[in-house]
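Duplicate of #3305? Posting structure anyway:
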């Protein structure tokens, strides 16, 4: 099993535990995979930055923007 799949499955399990009882496992699975996709996009964008711009602050900003995309739908 790939590392990303393990991460997605772990997030899905955690989300399933926190969602209302009437929410489906599918919702948790979709949300988990979207979160991992946002994190992956953040890492890829971070590595495209010039080395001198690769700071914790820029990583946080990229992550915020990636999750903003998810929130916006």
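Output from current build:
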């Amino acid at each position: 099993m790939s590392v990303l799949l393990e991460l997605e499955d772990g997030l899905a399990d955690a989300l399933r535990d926190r969602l209302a009882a009437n929410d489906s496992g599918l919702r948790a699975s979709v949300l988990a995979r979207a979160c991992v996709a946002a994190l992956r996009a953040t890492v890829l964008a971070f590595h495209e930055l010039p080395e001198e711009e690769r700071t914790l602050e820029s990583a946080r900003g990229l992550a915020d923007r990636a999750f903003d995309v998810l929130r916006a739908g």
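Confirmed duplicate; merging threads. The chain has a mean pLDDT of 86. Residues 25-48 form the longest helix (24 residues).
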